[in-house]
Amino acid sequence: AKKDSGSAYRFFEPEMDRIESERRQMAIELRRAVIENEFELHFQPIMSVKTGQLRGFEALIRWSHPTRGMVSPAEFVPVAEEIGLIEQLGAWVMDEACREAAGWPHSLIVAVNVSAQQFGGGKLVSGVERALAESGLHANRLEIEITESVLLNETDDNIEILRQLRGLGVRIALDDFGTGYSSMGYLTKFPFSRIKIDRSFVRNIRENVGSRAIVRAIIGLGSSLGMDITAEGVETSEQLDVLRDENCGELQGYLFSPPIPRQNLGPVIEAYCGD
Ligand code: C2E
Ligand code: CA
Ligand code: CA
Ligand code: CA
């Protein structure tokens, strides 16, 4: 910084220190939370747009902190990735999600988020195999959600891991689609089972012709590649109307349901599952 840029410089440095020390504190707390088992999984319904039937659930991790209450994964997952804790946490999520899903009707799938960091550790494929074997869940009922970041670095190695997962019979979804760059090109790198349209496009799909055009393009391209399409973050019936007009296959969002604790899944399955 310039010598006399003075106040701004002095203002930002303590601010950076504060953020850094909060991160360090969270890292300590996270390590403790893993030992104390303070995590739980919630499940958000994935619905067919056409039939209104339940297709499955996305597993989303929750941290129930003894004094802070529920901490958002948007806050702690990046820290867990940074300090190398995500492999352990991710393995726990995989085990729990598969075990839970094994008790659902067989038409329902479970979607599990997997970080790019979990691809580097060398244990992802064996961990998935173990979770499937121990739960008895059929591989084609497990869907692994990745983001474009998995395809950004170590691409060849990660594609090989995706192939191995596909070889087990597991489905692979591309999450948050449209938020990265050169997105369309990624669709040709690997035969994904599903594309999830990021909620930033869904949010203003009615007012913004650009968003609607992008959604239409994603649905057109994905469908022609044989992929299923899910719209994320659907909050209003107006958004649903547009998505229906655009032939979007599936939706997730507060309009139907937020993520819910496992003990409350029964009535949803009862009311919306076809079998
Ligand atoms: P994501 O995978 O994109 O998950 C969707 C997020 O959108 C979830 O936030 C969900 O609660 C929220 N959401 C669902 N419907 C709506 C809606 O209608 N409106 C709005 N505004 N939001 C909606 P959540 O649970 O806080 O998770 C945030 C992110 O944390 C996830 O984004 C994912 O990237 C990460 N995450 C969550 N669980 C796990 C996990 O088990 N492993 C890993 N690696 N990451 C996870
Ligand atoms: Ca996801
Ligand atoms: Ca997403
Ligand atoms: Ca996300």
Automatic annotation (TrEMBL):
<feature type="domain" description="EAL">
    <location>
        <begin position="23"/>
        <end position="273"/>
    </location>
</feature>
<protein>
    <submittedName>
        <fullName>EAL domain-containing protein</fullName>
    </submittedName>
</protein>
